[in-house]
Design brief:
42% of the residues lie in helices and 11% in strands. The chain is an alpha+beta fold and 468 residues long. It folds into three domains: 183 residues, no CATH class; 94 residues, Beta Complex (Beta-clip-like), CATH 2.170.270; 99 residues, no CATH class. The chain has a four-stranded mixed sheet with strand order 1-2-12-9. It has a three-stranded antiparallel sheet with strand order 3-11-10, with no helix packed on it. It is globular. The two termini are 44 Å apart. Keywords: Metal-binding, Zinc, Zinc-finger. GO terms for molecular function: methyltransferase activity; zinc ion binding. This is SET domain-containing protein. It holds the Pfam family zf-MYND.
Length: 468
């Protein structure tokens, strides 16, 4: 079977190689110094030339349990299948609306058998009792009241959530916790990926087709599209700033070849992430025999090619043509495959029902007259958290150890999509901060096999001892 051919790969091979070239140690050091200062991540530094390459080091002592880092994602996305269960801000990923809306929306969509992205808060006005043919009258009325905000559950005021803010472009796929989050997402990602009337996409029909293909195959393509959108929008801002600055007008003449130097600058935050082609680094599924590995990887490449071709219909512009090469697209997806940290935000609905369960007996009995039928309808789904995938620039610099001194851990107060890194043991100034990429409780050989997907064998003190 012949491989799919992307002509942009050959037409812009030099530019693509430059985009994918690893930044120099000085570039890495300078970038992360600025990022750490901007985010006020005190006590950390990134060493681009550590024992295992790039690494994060402590600049002062941390005690066990100390917060080391809250890392804002460069780009992230909620899993499409999770959108039925959790209504969250599309930028910061905290839960929004109300406890009632969270529950009502979930029951409503599950009852209708609607897939993710087909229904949002605006559908509340379309909720009718005829939609719930198999529900008891009580539960049917309860769902309708929850969806229409005409019913308040007992004690739900103790779990307030930000009001729902709609997408500036008018789509029904993105919602926010505030106008500031809506604007930030629009300016950084969403304006080119919005399917509403105000979208900046050149072909909304193709964009809808792209989203459908991603939802049916692998929603990692949504993340890749957000990276391309992010880079294009940064490029446009740089270009506007260049023309608006009279002192730099002469420099504009340097931006030839479709403004490639400016495109390279716009790409810089993405360039800091470790990358390999997706079809080269994706783990071989257990049900694929090793003799079929080459065919499997070819199929993965073709899947990415198909996704890219649809995306090009939606947002292609010759000015940014190198971004639409299969090499770039494959490496972006591979970056998520190798560097991603799960995006997880605990559900306030779970907290709400736990609160009801902990009430004094008399109050609990009274509250459960209303809440028990709702909880029974939700079943085990009541506690589903927001789930997705994200790339965190500082977390991605942390190296692996099977005896890590830190871990990703959400505390009670961590209610958005930022990565939270906590010290597992005392960490001295100058010591490297490590996390585990895998389940460190696995036996030695299983740990090493799991780490093969990341392209290395672990030589931490524990592995050196167990492997000798």
């Amino acid at each position: 079977m012949a491989a799919s051919v992307c002509l942009i790969d050959s037409q812009y091979s030099d530019q693509i190689s430059t985009l994918l070239k690893s930044p120099s140690p000085n570039q890495v050091k300078e970038y992360f110094q600025e990022l750490i200062a901007e985010r006020q991540c005190n006590g950390l530094r990134v060493n681009p030339e550590g024992e295992h390459g790039k690494g994060v080091y402590a600049d002062f002592d941390f005690k066990e349990g100390d917060l080391i880092l809250k890392d804002q994602m460069l780009v992230g996305a909620q899993h499409s299948s999770n959108k039925i269960d959790c209504l969250v801000c599309s930028f910061c990923f905290q839960f929004i609306g109300s406890i009632e809306l969270q529950i009502g929306k979930k029951l409503y969509l599950h009852e209708l058998g609607i897939s993710a992205d087909e229904c949002g808060p605006s559908d509340r006005t379309e909720c009718s009792s005829g939609s719930f043919s198999d529900r008891s009258p009580l539960l049917r009325d309860t769902i309708e009241s929850l969806m229409n905000d005409s019913m308040q559950l007992p004690f739900s005021e103790k779990f307030p959530l930000p009001s729902v803010v709609s997408c500036p472009g008018g789509c029904r796929e993105a919602y926010y916790c505030s106008e500031s989050c809506a604007k930030a997402d629009w300016d950084s990602f969403h304006s080119l990926l919005c399917t509403g009337k105000g979208s900046k996409s050149s072909n909304i029909e193709a964009l809808l087709k792209f989203i459908q293909h991603a939802n049916e195959t692998n929603d990692i393509f949504i993340l890749a599209a957000k990276v391309i959108s992010f880079t294009i929008l940064r490029y446009r801002k740089l270009k506007v700033a260049q023309f608006e600055n009279p002192e730099k007008q002469d420099a504009i003449n340097l931006y030839t070849n479709y403004g490639f130097p400016m495109l390279l600058e716009a790409w810089k935050p993405v360039s800091m992430g470790y990358k390999r082609r997706w079809w080269d680094c994706i783990a071989l599924p257990e049900d694929v025999d090793s003799c079929d590995e080459a065919m499997f990887r070819m199929q993965i490449r073709d899947l990415a090619f198909t996704s890219l071709e649809i995306l090009k219909e939606a947002m292609y512009d010759k000015e940014y043509e190198p971004l639409f090469s299969l090499e770039i697209y494959g490496h972006i997806i591979g970056m998520f495959e190798l560097n991603n940290l799960d995006l997880v935000v605990a559900s306030p609905v779970e907290d709400y029902f736990l609160y009801i369960d902990d009430l004094p007996l008399s109050e609990k009995k009274e509250a459960e007259k209303i809440t028990k039928p709702v909880l029974d309808a939700l079943g085990d789904d009541y506690s589903i958290c927001c789930q997705g995938t994200a790339f965190f620039p500082l977390q991605s610099c942390m190296n692996h150890s099977c005896i890590p001194n830190a871990k990703a851990f959400k505390r009670e107060e961590d209610r958005d999509g930022q990565a939270t890194i906590i010290a597992l043991k005392p960490i001295s100034k100058g010591e490297e901060i490590t996390i585990s990429y895998i389940d460190e409780d696995l036996p030695y050989e299983e740990r090493q096999a799991s780490l093969e997907d990341y392209g290395f064998r672990c030589k931490c003190p524990r592995c050196s001892e167990e492997g000798s």
